[in-house]
C-alpha cells in the first residue's frame, strides 16, 4: 500500500462497535488506542476483525495544541 499520508500508525484491532451505518474501530498502536469512524461497508470490505492487524492513517493539514489555564 502506497499513500501520500505520512502518519501511519500500525497496530491491532481491539474492538469494533457497529451502528446502523457506521462502525467505530479501535486500534491498539502499542498501548494507545486510536478510534476511527468508518462505514459498515468499509469494515466488511477491509475484512476488519478483532485481533487482526490494521493501520490508522492520519491525514491532516493542521494539528491544534491546547493547555489548561
Automatic annotation (TrEMBL):
Q: Which domain of life is it from?
A: Bacteria
Keywords of the record, alphabetical order, are:
Molybdenum
Q: Name one Pfam family in it.
A: TOBE
Q: Which named protein is this?
A: Molybdenum-pterin-binding protein 2
Record-linked InterPro entries: Mo/tungstate-bd_C_term_dom, Mop_domain, Transp-assoc_OB_typ1
User: Could you state one GO biological process linked to this protein?
Assistant: molybdate ion transport
Q: Which residues form the Mop domain?
A: 2-67
Q: Give the signal peptide as a residue range, or say none if absent.
A: none
UniProt cross-references to Gene3D superfamilies, sorted A to Z: 2.40.50.100
Q: Which NCBIfam families match?
A: Mop
Amino acid at each position: 500500500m502506497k499513500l501520500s499520508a505520512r502518519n501511519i500508525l500500525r497496530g491491532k484491532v481491539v474492538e469494533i462497535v457497529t451502528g446502523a451505518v457506521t462502525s467505530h474501530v479501535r486500534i491498539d498502536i502499542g498501548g494507545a488506542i486510536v478510534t476511527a469512524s468508518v462505514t459498515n461497508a468499509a469494515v466488511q470490505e477491509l475484512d476488519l476483525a478483532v485481533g487482526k492487524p490494521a493501520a490508522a492513517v492520519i491525514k491532516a493539514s493542521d494539528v491544534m495544541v491546547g493547555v489548561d489555564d
